[in-house]
Design brief:
Blueprint: H1 10-28, E1 37-41, H2 46-61, E2 65-72, H3 79-92, E3 98-102, H4 111-129, E4 134-136, H5 141-154, H6 157-161, E5 177-179, H7 187-197, H8 213-229, H9 233-262, E6 263-266, E7 269-273, H10 274-278, H11 282-297, H12 303-314, E8 322-324, E9 327-332, E10 335-339, E11 350-351
Parallel strand pairs: 1-2, 1-4, 2-3, 4-5, 8-11
Antiparallel strand pairs: 6-7, 7-10, 8-9, 9-10
Helix pairs in contact: 1-2, 1-7, 2-7, 5-8, 5-9, 9-11, 11-12
Length: 357
């Protein structure tokens, strides 16, 4: 098989610069070191194919190895052949190793969420088995804009509106990290890069299926916004995500500092000081509650659940405990007590998040 010889055009150059910056960032963060293997998540689509070509070019120039992981979700007829074609393209680019991984997609949370969960789990599993500290995925600025709009429609708050991070946080235990070098690159640029480089991407038919909310946002909502509000909508949404992510990171940092002062271990759980919670602004108070529940019990609270817990602080009138999925919260004097198992010390609380509530 002939070895791929990269060609340089403006789109190829832009994608390479983005990859170079991501690799530099990973080095600065201590994620990467010389001689490490970087893996590209390759579907065969224009975004991931342009990313794979740029990584094949840039990684060796930084003393790094570059390989690819092709995930076959098995959700469409001919998916195995699509995966084989993508793997051959990766090999032609000079990437090695090239791992094809077939996954089983469950039904929880809808097909998109289930496929995403299975894909990320497989990517990290393969990266760990190949001793690769970094996996690059091909989300673009357009994907970021779509994510922000979907988060806005769900009404799920600033954390959702902050979109996707360019690089995931370093894991608490040794393990691979996901990075998204192309969040500052438009989708049209990745397609142009493939044309310039003589690469033939695969067009996933699901990317034009209006049954998916993301496709409707891409093909209907964003074009209307651009037509009515002018060009630059995608860039503006991406900037909004960046700003909200910075704000969210700052609030998380403050919440962690305050939590050290307010929290104490209690029987079967954790306790927070009611006066301490009340003294903080609502945004920080809600974050403290979510941090306590997620950190102690691994449960992520919705806004409605968080506000109901906060009523035990701000609107206390002797009401009973609040039952969350797997967690009970009750007030005792100047403390909020969070426990894993429901106690038998009174009437049951109202279960928030339970089906039908």
């Amino acid at each position: 098989m002939d070895t791929y010889r990269p060609r340089l055009g403006p789109a190829v150059a832009e994608v390479r610069r983005a990859v170079r910056a991501a690799l530099d960032d990973a080095r600065s963060a201590g994620v990467l070191a010389a001689g490490n293997l970087v893996l590209v998540a390759l579907s065969g689509g224009a975004d991931s194919l342009a990313l794979a070509a740029a990584t094949a070019f840039e990684a060796p120039r930084q003393g790094l190895l570059a390989g690819a992981v092709v995930i076959d979700h098995g959700l469409q007829a001919g998916s195995a052949e699509v995966a084989r074609t993508a793997s051959r393209q990766a090999e032609a680019l000079g990437l090695a190793p090239v791992v094809v991984e077939r996954v089983r997609v469950g039904g929880a949370g809808g097909p998109e969420a289930a496929a995403r969960e299975a894909r990320y789990a497989a990517l990290l599993r393969v990266a760990a088995s190949e001793w690769s500290p970094l996996v690059l995925v091909g989300h673009t600025m357009d994907d970021q804009a779509e994510t922000v709009l979907l988060g806005l429609l769900r009404g799920s708050g600033p954390d959702s509106l902050s979109g996707m991070a360019a690089r995931g946080p370093a894991p608490t235990e040794p393990g691979p990290v996901l990075a998204r070098p192309l969040l500052g690159v438009r989708r049209a640029t990745t397609r142009a890069a493939c044309v310039e480089a003589g690469l033939e991407p695969w067009d996933d038919p699901q990317n034009t299926d209006p049954a998916f909310a993301r496709v409707r946002v891409r093909d209907r909502v964003l074009p209307v916004l651009a037509a009515e509000l002018g060009d630059g909508v995608v860039e503006a949404l991406a900037r909004t995500a960046d700003q909200l992510r910075e704000d969210a990171a700052a609030l998380d940092h403050f919440a962690e500092e305050v939590a050290e002062e307010l929290a104490e271990h209690a029987e079967a759980g954790i306790a927070l000081s009611v006066p301490g919670l009340a003294a903080n602004p609502a945004a920080l108070r809600q974050r403290l509650v979510r941090l306590a529940v997620e950190g102690e019990f691994g449960v992520v609270l919705s806004r409605r659940q968080t506000l109901e817990v906060c009523r035990l602080v701000t609107d206390w009138s002797g009401q009973g405990p609040v039952d969350l999925p797997g967690v009970r919260v009750r007030r005792e004097g100047d403390r909020l007590l969070f426990a894993r198992a429901a106690s038998d010390d009174g009437a049951p609380g109202r279960i928030l998040g339970h089906p039908g509530v």
